[in-house]
Amino acid sequence: GDSVTQMEGPVTLSEEAFLTINCTYTATGYPSLFWYVQYPGEGLQLLLKATKADDKGSNKGFEATYRKETTSFHLEKGSVQVSDSAVYFCALSDRGTGRRALTFGSGTRLQVQP
Amino acid sequence: DGGITQSPKYLFRKEGQNVTLSCEQNLNHDAMYWYRQDPGQGLRLIYYSQIVNDFQKGDIAEGYSVSREKKESFPLTVTSAQKNPTAFYLCASSAGAASYEQYFGPGTRLTVT
User: A82: helix, coil or strand?
Assistant: First the structure.
């Protein structure tokens, strides 16, 4: 079945540091890939998405490129802020299976220190 | 403003009681979903519905039930058969067949003692 693997956290960075959160996936069909962000006590917010190979999703300074050859969708940001502290989830939706529900990674907690 | 509402935000129940969590959306989305989140873990799918009066079990449906009588509403009942009901419950919705991105509500934290 489908699965998503994320790097374990927490990831602790100083403000203005470069961020990478690794995500790799296994899918039987043709997945769309997503990054969601969750702030404490809240629901998930869609951060960015990519629907086919080599697509780059970007939003609020974050970006991720759909790499089919390495089955990866790593999240990057050039300069993090304290306000970026949250839990980040990589997810996929596999169009080939017809199941539209998302398969999530376990989440990576990011802590940004001033 | 369009969005998804879940109520209440915090819910406390005694063991052995059934409890129903509310989820309402005004996005005119066809599909709705219920996920469960446990500390330090990702989300797991409980039930989903792609159209009114139809729903399917997800990966962890045992001990839960749902209904979808209206497009806007997808309530989840946590029954006494659910062995570990304490968790954070998230409802989501998505538009029609061409869209796979989901939008989430703020969640309900259920504590059963």
Answer: helix
